[in-house]
Specification:
It contains 3 helices and 10 strands; from the N terminus they run E-E-E-H-E-E-E-E-E-E-H-E-H. By secondary structure, the chain is mainly beta. The chain has a 6-stranded antiparallel barrel with strand order 5-6-9-8-7-10. It is 12% helix and 37% strand.
């Protein structure tokens, strides 16, 4: 259920649900809300936080870009690489720092680069700092207040999609 304007979506449209690209199988508009259903295959279920969703879980929703739409951030495809647990959330004066361990990401560490792009729950973000075993992202109030990041706590898991362009360049150079 959402109040996001899905008037241009139909059966077969892709919608990013917490950063997971899913296909709409039904959609209805009732009492100022859109109700839509999607199928989630086993691979997607096992690789993403969808395994933790319930009726009370708030997810980030975003429609697919259409030709001519503004690109505000890096390319996010909804092809989740892994999930990570939030190690710490630090409230600063005008932002929040979310910390994650990169020690269990051996095959992905080459994509964790200071000031590099990362998608967390489908949100295009920048990696702020990288230390030996930890990296963090810095969240401004607009992002914090308009996404489900404000509902997350230490120990919660998030969907991670590493920068697709970096992944394709790496594969090409391997």
């Amino acid at each position: 259920k959402t109040d996001l304007d899905l008037s241009d979506c139909k059966i077969g449209s892709s919608i990013s649900c917490d950063g997971v690209c899913l296909t709409v199988i039904s959609i209805n508009y009732i009492n100022s809300f859109y109700f839509f259903n999607v199928n989630i295959g086993e691979e997607t279920f096992n690789r993403t936080t969808a395994q933790y969703w319930n009726n009370n879980y708030n997810i980030n929703l975003e429609k697919s870009l259409k030709v001519g739409d503004e690109i505000s951030g890096h390319f996010v495809y909804g092809h989740v690489d892994t999930i990570l647990e939030i190690l710490n959330i630090e409230k600063l004066n005008s932002s929040w720092n979310f910390y994650f361990s990169n020690s269990s990401l051996s095959k992905y560490t080459k994509f964790i680069v200071e000031k590099g792009s990362i998608s967390i729950n489908g949100i295009s973000l920048t990696i702020a700092n990288v230390k030996e075993d930890v990296f963090n992202i810095s969240i401004i109030p607009h992002t914090y207040n308009n996404t489900n990041l404000s509902n997350l706590n230490v120990g919660d898991s998030v969907n991670i999609e590493f920068d697709s362009l970096a992944k394709y360049i790496q594969v090409k150079n391997d």
